[in-house]
């Protein structure tokens, strides 16, 4: 399998102070139902954000407003410096979108489809070289295969290629690795990091895979009840929630486990008491899933 690791970089643009995403008091109402009740967040150029939340929290609505596909009820939104409600074709050419699934273009061959889609970007920016793109997403052995003949994982790789064919400044990823095997998922994670680090691409990711969000995102946003209830790195959110860590060790051949909110202090006290008797010490901090569930329980408890 070809590694998803070769990302061509474009010449750096002059740095700007304006965030890639600037969302202030975003609101959306359907009839009498307020889906978004004042969503506020920003994203810097080259930052990877994960937008998490339970079903019905408003994630899809938020993303569709940012992409310019849905009109908001109120609030201020700037995407790459533009109000998405007034986005031009040149503005749209700076966006990349990887939907949860595509079922179109079944009769096209992989390379032909990507070359065709890339041609739409020529007037606005320099698209990927089609062979380089096919190699980057690991589809070189399938470049001349019809899309309808691809496996689920191969189809997902093509979805990613479609999303980045125009070298976007901002990339929206909706459940991007659904259907990927573990090796393909690791390669995709490497591609995301390279897009952000080398091409300065801003990435907004939605996923139900919290382990993936923790590995990919610089910052986690948790949306619940139509508002952002948490905003920070996985480590910051864990500290804010004082979520327990597990300390595991062996002494005199016996295994011990202890939960604590201050693992550093506990380990220090442990060595002060037993010193060299301690063996096989492990500290397992709370996962993003633990923190996520704790934050939702806290929010739901306060909302009652």
TrEMBL record:
Primary location recorded for the protein, binned into one broad class: membrane
Coiled-coil intervals, chain numbering: 271-298
Listed InterPro entries: AAA+_ATPase, ABC_transporter-like_ATP-bd, ABC_transporter-like_CS, ABC_transporter_ATP-binding, P-loop_NTPase
Keywords: Antibiotic resistance, ATP-binding, Coiled coil, Nucleotide-binding, Transport
Region described as Disordered: spans on this chain: 1-21
Transmembrane regions listed in the UniProt entry: none
Domain ABC transporter, chain residue ranges per copy: 21-250
Pfam families attached to this UniProt entry: ABC_tran
Assigned protein family: Belongs to the ABC transporter superfamily.
UniProt protein name: ABC transporter ATP-binding protein
């Amino acid at each position: 399998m070809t590694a998803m690791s070769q990302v061509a970089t474009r010449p750096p643009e002059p740095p700007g102070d304006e965030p890639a995403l600037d969302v202030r008091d975003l609101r959306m109402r359907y009839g009498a139902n307020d889906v978004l009740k004042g969503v506020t967040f920003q994203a810097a150029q080259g930052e990877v954000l994960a937008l998490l939340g339970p079903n019905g929290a408003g994630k899809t609505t938020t993303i569709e407003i940012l992409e310019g596909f849905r009109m908001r009820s109120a609030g201020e939104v700037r995407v790459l410096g533009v109000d998405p409600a007034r986005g031009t074709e040149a503005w749209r050419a700076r966006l990349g979108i990887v939907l949860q699934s595509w079922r179109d273009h079944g009769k096209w061959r992989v390379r032909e489809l990507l070359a065709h889609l890339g041609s739409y970007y020529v007037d606005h920016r320099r698209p990927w070289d089609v062979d380089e793109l096919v190699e980057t997403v690991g589809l070189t052995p399938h470049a001349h295969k019809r899309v309808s003949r691809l496996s689920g994982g191969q189809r997902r790789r093509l979805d990613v290629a479609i999303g980045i064919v125009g070298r976007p400044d901002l990339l929206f990823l909706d459940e991007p690795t659904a259907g990927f095997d573990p090796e393909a998922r690791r390669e995709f994670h490497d591609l995301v990091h390279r897009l952000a680090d080398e091409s300065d691409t801003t990435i907004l990711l939605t996923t139900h895979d919290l382990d993936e969000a923790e590995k990919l995102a610089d910052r986690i946003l948790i949306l619940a009840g139509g508002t952002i209830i948490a905003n920070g790195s996985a480590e910051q959110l864990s500290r804010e929630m004082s979520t327990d860590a597990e300390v595991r060790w062996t002494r005199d051949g016996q295994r011990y486990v202890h939960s604590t909110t201050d693992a550093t202090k506990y380990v220090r006290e442990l060595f002060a008491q037993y010193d060299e008797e301690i063996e096989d010490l492990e500290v397992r901090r709370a996962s993003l899933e633990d923190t996520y569930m704790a934050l939702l329980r806290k929010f739901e408890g306060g909302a009652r």
